[in-house]
From TrEMBL, chain A:
Entry EC number(s): 7.1.1.-
Biological function: NDH-1 shuttles electrons from NADH, via FMN and iron-sulfur (Fe-S) centers, to quinones in the respiratory chain.
Keyword field: Membrane, NAD, Quinone, Transmembrane, Transmembrane helix, Transport, Ubiquinone
The protein's name in its UniProt record: NADH-quinone oxidoreductase subunit
From TrEMBL, chain B:
Keyword match Glycoprotein: no
A single cellular component GO annotation: plasma membrane
Catalysed reaction, written as an equation: a quinone + NADH + 5 H(+)(in) = a quinol + NAD(+) + 4 H(+)(out)
Membrane topology: Multi-pass membrane protein
Function noted in UniProt: NDH-1 shuttles electrons from NADH, via FMN and iron-sulfur (Fe-S) centers, to quinones in the respiratory chain. The immediate electron acceptor for the enzyme in this species is believed to be ubiquinone. Couples the redox reaction to proton translocation (for every two electrons transferred, four hydrogen ions are translocated across the cytoplasmic membrane), and thus conserves the redox energy in a proton gradient. This subunit may bind ubiquinone.
Documented EC number(s): 7.1.1.-
UniProt-recorded name of the protein: NADH-quinone oxidoreductase subunit H
A single GO BP: aerobic respiration
HAMAP family reported for this sequence: NDH1_NuoH
Family classification: Belongs to the complex I subunit 1 family.
Species assigned in the record: Pseudochryseolinea flava
Coiled coil location: none
UniProtKB keywords: Cell membrane, Membrane, NAD, Oxidoreductase, Quinone, Translocase, Transmembrane, Transmembrane helix, Ubiquinone
Upper classification of the organism: Bacteria, Pseudomonadati, Bacteroidota, Cytophagia, Cytophagales
UniProtKB/TrEMBL annotation, chain D:
Primary location recorded for the protein, binned into one broad class: membrane
Record's bilayer topology term: Multi-pass membrane protein
Organism: Pseudochryseolinea flava
Pfam family of the protein (one): Proton_antipo_M
Domain NADH:quinone oxidoreductase/Mrp antiporter transmembrane: 128-420
GO function terms (MF aspect): NADH dehydrogenase (ubiquinone) activity; NADH dehydrogenase activity; ubiquinone binding
Keyword Transmembrane helix (UniProt): yes
Residue stretches spanning the membrane: 27-45, 82-100, 107-126, 132-151, 163-184, 211-233, 245-265, 271-291, 303-322, 334-352, 372-390, 410-429, 450-468
GO cellular component assignments: endomembrane system; membrane
Protein's UniProt name: NADH-quinone oxidoreductase subunit M
Automatic annotation (TrEMBL), chain E:
Name of the featured protein: NADH-quinone oxidoreductase subunit K
Presence of keyword Metal-binding: no
Sequence similarity: Belongs to the complex I subunit 4L family.
Membrane topology designation: Multi-pass membrane protein
UniProt subcellular location: Cell membrane; Membrane
NCBIfam families recorded: PRK05715.1-1, PRK05715.1-2
Coiled-coil segments: none
One Gene Ontology cellular component annotation held by this UniProt entry: plasma membrane
Domain of life: Bacteria
Protein source organism: Pseudochryseolinea flava
GO biological process terms on file: ATP synthesis coupled electron transport
Keywords tagged on the record: Cell membrane, Membrane, NAD, Oxidoreductase, Quinone, Translocase, Transmembrane, Transmembrane helix, Transport
């Protein structure tokens, strides 16, 4: 499909053709920008939890054979997961974007000082 | 070539052709439905009920300039849209439409599906990154983050089904629902999977990576022509995929009252969900990105874990009593 | 797994629970003191629990683990070492890091990994233990985020450790491919029933040794050692120098005894070369260093070389000598790094030799303790290091490894030179006034007491090693 | 138990001195003097006891230490050891006294080191367990290193390094030999032990014995020192503070000689005989070379240091002559050299205190200003060149007589060496005390104070006493030396063991089973 | 799977391992080094699966899961460190990260 389109497609060259499209506004700076490290955090969270699901998968498939014993093991494992999750939560790794409450607090503090 | 091979080939191409034909059709369907629900006109010029608009769109896409931005990373730029379509199409390989109508009956079908849907993240990342455009990059970062996050819950929410079936094979799963659809015992799992599925296909309301109003068109801002078309088609095949998966996993697949053939039941259920997807688009606003992510990590993940634990416990308890 | 299995694994369970408890504690409220208390108490409690085992305790938890005297002894050693590291960390991190709580979790996890390693008798448990240890170490090394060298050391260690893990794993898989076994006993059995070892098996064992060599930091796989020692926070350096390397050595001893690796000349030759190279390279490179942590790093390379002499002696004598050397080396290294940690100020570690100029006159007791540690490293009588070196030489001579022993002696002399150089700097009379902004003196009490206890142990082992010797004799 | 006390007094005295140094600078001095005096008193008292034993062993103490290796805390005392420890404590007191005014920096730590060196030396002279021997051998190094390195002269660091590394390297070779011997014996008899007496009769093949002996020899010849292993000595002696030089020359070198007599000869009789010619040749070379070098020196302490090298040549010569008389001479030499050279170092130190230089070329004509010091120096210079009537004469004379029967050529050359000794001894006198005064402030040069006289006087008395009446010393050492040579060295018979972990005994009188000459 | 296929898989693993090894040694970009190491690890994992298949045991696959886990953990920490280094040095050239000498 790509090939067909390449052959059939028309060609043109205009003034703004060679610039990144940013809603019509002229772009500034490179696209290799720094963005929130939150994204990396998500990547890491994913890596951790996704890998843990691998263990859950293998447990799930052998679930009947393992019985209560395996169940107990998995519950322990899940508790670990949850503890980690709680920790991440508390550590702020799960807070995406700014926290309104905090901003409000900081703002109040600031205004209180100014008064 | 013996009969088995021929029938296998037939199924393969049948499924492929079906998908490629239906997907563009969905575009028309969506627009018509949106128009219906939002009380406006949909496509209505080309052909009866505007049906030919699909053809027109396709032709237009083919004749558009095959534009590769000079500032882009060319190889990757071309590769990215191809990945979408390929992965989504590959996922269909394991879907049992009806007894005997399946391209490849893998015993790890479910895992294969999960693996393929993870691959989708690559196309977004690569597409956004290779475009060398700030919006595209941001969109792709968001998209990737969203995709991989929901990937986790998606897998976890399915574990309940796996527990009840004891197999990763989708056929086994369907057959396990002969008497009771899993949507009943696994309702929580169903809900989570559905939400995750919507997020995976980055459909509205979870179309954060594209988010026209914020990011113009997100990761595919720089795409046009057929390459854009591929993203577009990929998205619609994705909707079908998720709908079929829900059908297979929770709604008993091809099972239904015997006055209709199994394939028909399957297609009915699938389209039911496709309608549902479109309805969502018509009715829900888009959440903020951070809300979306927090919702996933803070609510869906614990819920899916809880679902897993409770399901396991109940099954074991029932086995021993 | 039954109740007695669980009983045997309780020390590990306590460690894991401590880590989780710490997680919870951090989730509730960050408090350095609380975390520190939990960590220290659980380590102490764990050790006390450990003493309830009989020395002849033997519990096979098939197929992965075996909790026997040797394992228990090593776990005890690891626990105590970790305890000491934790104790000296308090003052160190109190003045440096904002987020210092996770450190203790990582520390406990690293100790847990090492504990698994020393009781493993299967590749899977070996690998798991090693990786739990390594992955914790990556973060520990880079813990002081604001320091440039910290990250550098962390990434260096990470890449090289992962690199060596790959070697280790590939070696394991080759062995598994030939033998179909991953437990040490099974591999040993295969070797006894096979006349000619297949080449692929040899390659596997060779890669295993390469991987282990990286972790141990023997020449020629030593490149990471000085940088990591320098870049890591001092307590972590102490931990790497002791637990990380000691665990590997203990594991090697177990593995080689299980497969009776000493009968293969190619391996003993290989280890001989590694040992001699480590001794010489470590000592000679240490000569021209001016950074104390680097000196200790190079010296640790050579000490691993000495240890390999004992290791190569094989048999129970070799194992005992190795173990005793480890004990002595642990005490000494901990003491040395502990002193570096206490002398460090907020901004940098006291790692340059010049920081120690005239220390004897500024802080006589610290300087004396430090001298004792250095002399112990050099193997001078009255210190544990002497008995250890004596034991190693005895083991070497007892098995006729003349070349090794001779190299050891030569290297002891070379080593002496730079140890003495540090001591000489300490009693240099040119006083250097150091204007360090110090914390509340109470903070230092813990570290100081720890160091004092270590010094006492050092002399006690040096003067009356019989207790330790018979203990080691019993467990092996 | 007494033997243990001797060591413990020094060790604890050292610690006490070290700590008391923080309170008061005088306290450590007094503590040290007290501790050493107690020991000196005990050892003199032991010497005064009539030896009614048939065995040379006067006392012994055996405690279990590290039974896993067959290591025991085994001390024993015979005539030779007794002589050596008396010398140790005697010079020890002198060393403390001489530092009374010289050392002001960290007095406590200084005395701590001093006492620990002495403790190590005492241990070396007493121990009958090879491991323990090595232990003490090393223990004395560290404090000595500190003595040189902290309180020495300008070039002290270098000298301290050199001293330490030389002795440590050779010591490790000895350790290898000790362990090898341990295994050879253990494999032969299945009894793994470091006990000296058990190891004495170890049978081994010649090759092995040769190598093992070389290990021991390495440690002793470096310590002694024998050419060409002497290069640490001039540096160490020169740079050490006076007390350090005194202990180095007076005691530390003697541990080497003692090791030769105690270990090399009895453990490896055949091998010692085999290498005797080489060893004697080295000894003689040392005598001549040391003397020649001494003559050429301008640094007073260095000059004395080289004279030590020369004197220690006699020890080497005498030991490997393998005759009883020569060994008697060696023992005498050890004592008299300790005293005479020690005294010379003291004088060098006193001069240095006064004129802040050790350069002979800057001295001269001191006789007038400091007559007492000059007379005393004269006495010791004469002692050094072997003037009859002084102790050194007896020593050298016995050595030469003893070695004459063994090797005439060597003896002859050694005798010539004495002539060189005369040359450098007289040169000291001539350059320093006679001739023209070269320094302006010589006028104000103070003669010996009462304290200094008090220090030097005993030395003078002892050296003269040994010269005119050496018999008590010879008698003390005689028995042990005879047995050493005749290979009849045997362990003191142990009484019934009361408590295996703790047994102390004095050897009961007249054992019937022991051979007697 | 029979032994011949297992051997081939082992061979493939060996090739992958060597490729990874070479790449670690010649690459200068830290991220690429990390990726190369991952390749080596995965090669080892593949070798385990091949070996397990050869003996008809699940142990090889178990080991692979562990390797995967460990590799994941390693990458997480590695990425965090790389981020930190990039913040400080503004480059990922491994030659730049050599503040320590000796």
């Amino acid at each position: 499909m790509l090939g067909v389109s390449y052959i059939l497609g028309q060609r043109h060259k205009e003034r703004a053709s060679h610039e990144p499209y940013e809603g019509g506004i002229l772009s500034t700076g490179s696209a290799r920008i720094r963005f929130s490290s939150q994204f990396y955090l998500v990547a890491m969270l994913f890596v951790i939890f996704d890998v843990e699901t691998i263990f859950l998968f293998s447990w799930a498939i052998a679930f009947k054979e393992l019985g209560w014993y395996g169940y107990a093991g998995m519950v322990v494992f899940l508790i670990l997961l949850v503890v980690v999750l709680i920790y991440e939560w508390r550590a702020g790794a799960l807070d995406f974007g700014p926290d309104g409450q905090k901003i409000l607090k900081a703002y109040k503090k600031l205004t209180a000082k100014q008064k | 070539m013996d009969d088995a091979t021929i029938s296998h080939l037939l199924i393969t191409f049948g499924v492929l052709a079906g998908l490629l034909l239906v997907a563009p059709g969905l575009i028309w369907l969506e627009r018509r439905l949106l128009a219906l629900w939002q009380d406006r006109y949909g496509p209505n010029r080309a052909g009866p009920f505007g049906l030919l608009v699909v053809l027109a769109d396709t032709l237009k896409l083919f004749f558009k300039e095959d534009w590769i931005p000079p500032f882009a990373d060319k190889k990757v730029f071309v590769l990215a849209p191809a990945i979408v379509v390929i992965t989504v199409l590959l996922s269909f390989v394991v879907i049992p439409f009806a007894p005997g109508i399946i391209v490849a009956d893998m015993n790890i079908g479910l895992l294969f599906f999960l693996a393929m849907s993870s691959m989708g993240a690559y196309s977004i990342i690569l597409g956004g990154w290779s475009s060398n455009n700030k919006y595209a990059l941001l969109g792709s970062m968001r998209g990737a983050a969203q995709l991989i996050s929901y990937e986790v819950f998606m897998g976890l929410s399915l574990m309940g089904v796996v527990l009840m079936t004891g197999s990763f094979s989708l056929i086994d799963i369907v057959e396990a629902q002969r008497y009771q659809w899993f949507i009943v015992p696994q309702f929580l799992g169903f809900v989570i999977f559905l939400i995750a599925g919507i997020a995976e296909t980055h459909r509205l309301p979870f179309d954060i990576p594209e988010a026209e109003s914020e990011l113009i068109a997100g990761f595919h801002s720089e795409y046009s022509g057929m390459k854009f078309g591929l993203f577009f088609v990929g998205e619609y095949i994705g909707i079908m995929l998720i709908s079929s998966m829900v059908t297979v996993l929770f709604l008993g697949g091809w099972y239904g009252p015997s006055f209709l053939p199994p394939l028909a039941w399957f297609i009915i259920k699938m389209f039911g969900f496709i309608f549902f997807f479109i309805l969502l688009r018509a009715s829900l606003p888009r959440p903020r990105y951070d809300q979306l992510m927090e919702f996933g990590w803070k609510i869906l993940l614990p819920l899916s874990l809880l679902n897993l634990v409770v399901t396991g416990g109940i099954i074991l308890w029932m086995n021993t009593h | 797994m039954n109740r007695s299995d669980l009983y045997s694994l309780t020390p590990l369970l306590i460690l894991s629970s401590a880590a989780i408890l710490n997680f919870f504690s951090i989730s509730i409220k960050r408090n350095h003191k609380v975390i520190f208390a939990i960590t220290v108490l659980s380590l102490i409690g764990d050790f006390i629990f450990l003493t309830s085992y009989s020395l002849y305790h033997q519990q096979h938890i098939d197929p992965l683990l075996v909790v026997d005297g040797f394992g228990i002894f090593n776990i005890g050693l690891i626990l105590l070492t970790t305890l000491v590291v934790a104790l000296m960390s308090y003052a160190y991190f109190e003045q440096r890091e904002e987020r210092k709580e996770e450190y203790y979790i990582l520390l406990i996890l690293a100790a847990l990994g090492a504990c698994i390693m020393v009781i493993s008798k299967h590749f899977v448990s070996f690998f798991l233990g090693l990786e739990v240890l390594s992955v914790s170490l990556y973060s520990l090394i880079a813990y002081l985020r604001t320091r440039e060298r910290s990250d550098e050391a962390g990434i260096k260690y990470l890449i090289l450790a992962a690199f060596s893990s790959a070697f280790l794993l590939f070696g394991m898989s080759l062995i598994y491919a030939t033998t179909g076994k991953m437990d040490f006993g099974g591999i040993g059995y295969y070797l006894t029933t096979t006349q000619d070892i297949p080449l692929i098996m040899m390659a596997g064992l060779g890669m295993l040794i390469v991987g282990a060599g990286f972790k141990l930091g023997v020449v020629p796989f030593h490149m990471w050692t000085p940088d990591v020692y320098e870049g890591a926070p001092t307590p972590v350096t102490a931990f790497i120098a002791t637990v990380s390397k000691g665990g590997m050595i203990a594991l090697l001893v177990r593995f080689f005894n299980a497969i009776n690796g000493y009968q293969y000349e190619s391996f003993t030759n290989l280890f001989t070369v590694l040992s001699i190279a480590s001794m010489f390279v470590g000592n000679i490179l240490a000569l021209r260093q001016t950074n104390l942590k680097r000196i200790l790093a190079y010296s640790s390379i050579s000490h691993i070389g000495y240890l390999l002499v004992a290791f190569l002696s094989g048999g129970s004598m070799g194992a005992q000598a190795t173990t005793f050397y480890l004990v002595a080396y642990f005490i000494t290294t901990l003491g040395a790094f502990g002193i570096i940690a206490t002398l460090s100020d907020q901004h940098r570690d006291a790692e340059l030799i010049d920081d120690y100029r005239g220390l004897l006159w500024r802080r006589p007791l610290t300087a004396v303790a430090f001298s004792a540690m250095l002399l112990s490293l050099a193997g001078i009588p009255l210190t544990a290091g002497f008995i250890a070196k004596f034991y190693v030489i005895t083991a070497g001579i007892g098995t006729q490894h003349w070349l090794l022993v001779f190299c050891l002696v030569v290297n002891s002399v070379i080593g002496l030179y730079y140890y003495i150089k540090i001591i000489a700097v300490m009693f240099d009379q040119k006083l250097q006034i150091k204007s360090a902004k110090e914390l509340h003196p109470l903070v230092y009490v813990i570290s100081s007491v720890t160091i004092a206890v270590l010094a006492v142990f050092l002399f006690w082992l040096g003067v009356s090693p019989e207790g330790m010797l018979s203990l080691i004799d019993d467990v092996i | 138990m007494i033997l243990m006390i001797l060591i413990l007094v020094l060790l604890f005295g050292g610690i006490a001195a070290g700590f008391s140094g923080r309170m008061n600078t005088m306290l450590p001095r007094w503590i040290s003097v007290g501790a050493i005096a107690i020991n000196l008193f005990i050892s003199l008292w032991m010497a005064a006891q009539p030896n009614t034993n048939s065995s040379p062993w006067l006392l012994q103490l055996k405690l279990n230490w590290i039974p896993s290796f067959g290591i025991s805390f085994h001390l024993a005392l015979d005539g030779i050891s007794l002589l050596m420890i008396i010398l140790t404590f005697f010079l020890g007191i002198i060393a403390v006294a001489i530092s009374w005014n010289e050392i002001h920096f960290r007095v406590g730590f200084f005395h701590f080191n001093l006492l620990w060196v002495l403790a190590g030396i005492t241990g070396v002279f007493l121990t009958m367990d090879l491991f323990l021997f090595y232990f003490f051998w090393e223990v004395m190094l560290i404090p000595m290193y500190f003595l040189i390195g902290i309180w020495g002269h300008e070039n002290r660091q270098y000298a301290a390094y050199k001293f330490f590394i030389f002795t440590q390297a050779s010591g490790l070779l000895m350790l290898m030999s000790i362990i090898a011997l341990y295994f050879v014996h253990g494999q032969a008899t299945d009894q793994y032990t470091f006990n000296y007496f058990d190891l004495l009769g170890t049978s081994m093949n010649k090759q092995t014995a040769q190598w093992i002996m070389l290990g021991f020899l390495a440690a002793f010849v470096v310590k002694l020192p024998v050419i060409p292993f002497h290069t640490w000595l001039p540096d160490a002696h020169t740079e050490a503070p006076t007390a350090g030089s005194l202990i180095l020359a007076g005691l530390l070198l003697k541990t080497g000689a003692y090791g030769l007599i105690r270990f090399i000869l009895p453990l490896f009789p055949e091998q010692s005989a085999a290498i005797a010619p080489v060893a004697m040749a080295l000894g003689v070379t040392g005598i001549v070379y040391g003397a020649v070098q001494a003559y050429g020196q301008t640094d007073l302490k260095r000059l004395i240091a080289y004279s030590s090298v020369s004197h220690m040549g006699f020890v080497m010569l005498g030991v490997f002559a393998l005759t009883e008389i020569a060994l008697q001479g060696v023992v005498m030499q050890m004592i008299t050299h300790g005293i005479s050279t020690g005294a010379l170092f003291i004088i060098a130190g006193l001069l240095y205190e006064r004129i802040r230089t050790r350069d002979v070329t800057q001295m001269g004509g001191f006789w007038k200003s400091i007559p007492v010091a000059s007379v005393i120096t004269l006495i010791f210079a004469m002692a050094s060149l072997g003037l009859p009537g002084l102790g050194n004469f007896v020593a050298e004379f016995l050595t030469l007589i003893g070695s004459w029967s063994a090797n005439k050529t060597m003896t002859l050359i050694a005798t010539i060496g004495i002539v060189f000794a005369t040359a450098y001894s007289l040169r000291i006198m001539q350059k320093v005390f006679l001739g023209k005064s070269r320094l302006e402030h010589h006028q104000s040069l103070a003669d010996l104070t009462a304290r200094e006289r008090l220090i030097l006087l005993p030395l003078v008395i002892v050296i003269i006493l040994l010269g005119v009446h050496p018999q008590p010393a010879i008698d003390l050492a005689k028995d042990g030396l005879q047995k050493t040579l005749n290979r009849e060295f045997q362990a003191p018979k142990e009484p019934k063991i009361i408590n295996p972990n703790y047994q102390t005994l004095t050897v009961p009188a007249t054992e019937k089973g022991v051979h007697h000459e | 799977m029979n032994a011949a296929i297992a051997d081939q898989a082992l061979m493939l693993a060996g090739i992958l391992f060597v490729l990874g090894l070479i790449s670690v040694l010649i690459r200068r970009n830290i991220i690429f080094m990390l990726i190369s190491v991952e390749i080596m690890l995965n090669a080892a994992g593949l070798a385990f699966i091949a070996a397990g298949a050869r003996w008809g045991q699940p142990d090889g696959q178990v080991m692979f899961v562990f390797i995967l886990t460990m590799a994941a953990a390693e990458v997480s920490v590695g990425l965090a460190l790389i981020l930190q280094i990039y913040h400080q040095l503004k480059t990922l050239d491994s030659d730049a990260a050599d503040k320590m000498h000796g």
